[in-house]
Amino acid sequence: MVDVKRVKLPGVGVLHTFVADGGGKVGVITHRSGHSDLITFSNADEGGTATKVALRLDDDEAHTLAELLGGTRITESLTSLDSIPGLTIDWFPVDYEDNIAGKELGDLAAHGVVGVTVVAVVRGESANPAPDEHFKVFPGDTLVAAGSPEKVAKAFTYYRTGETTAKTAADAPPGA
After folding, report:
1. If you ran DSSP here, which 8-state letter would residue 7 be given?
2. 8 Å CB contact between 63 and 125
3. Gap between the Cα atoms of 133 and 94, Å rounded
4. 156 and 107, same structural domain?
């Protein structure tokens, strides 16, 4: 766990800092105005010179940086899930010519595709988690699906073309 120090800066805002494993310091000054400053300091080790870098970020830039840094943990989590045998998580960007464009997600099982879950639909900068079968999909959306690699591929074929291949034993519901 990283030890973060918090210091109030009267008339300015708040400074949060921590020391990185490499010895340098990382800090963020959150100004009362809404701006943030990302600052880094390196130590003057073994006769070297200390360096300092400061970068002023507006609110949108600070949020983007936070998402990028937080996104690393999300990606790591998804990667560890993806290493579970028999499970894949994949993204399907919806184009204008795709069968699903302008339609509701529908019930995949009714079309012969079982064992796949659309866990989210990403639209613009927001996510719609656990959409139901009546959720309308538009070009530019990205579907996030989970299931076995074969079943996810089959679902994506259906979303792209509107066609499914013949059912296989892998399509049978568990316990059937």
Report:
1. E
2. no
3. 16
4. yes
Cβ atoms of 146 and 88 within 8 Å: the answer is yes
Residue 43 has pLDDT above 60, yes or no: yes
**Distance from C-alpha of 105 to C-alpha of 127, rounded to nearest angstrom:** 15
How many whole angstroms separate alpha carbon 135 and alpha carbon 113?
A: 18
Name the residue range of residue 158's domain. 86-164
Residue 121 lies in a domain: yes
Q: Is 53 helix (H, G, I), strand (E, B) or coil?
A: strand
More confident residue, 102 or 172: 102
CB 23 within 8 A of CB 32: no
**Domain limit, last residue, from 81, 102, 136:** 81
Two tokens at 49?
């010179």
* Whether the predicted model's global pTM rises above the 0.90 cut: no
Helix (H, G, I), strand (E, B) or coil at 40: strand
Report how many domains make up the chain.
2
Write the pLDDT tens digit of every residue in 105-137: 988 788 788 888 898 888 887 888 888 889 999
Evaluate whether residue 105 is within a structural domain.
yes
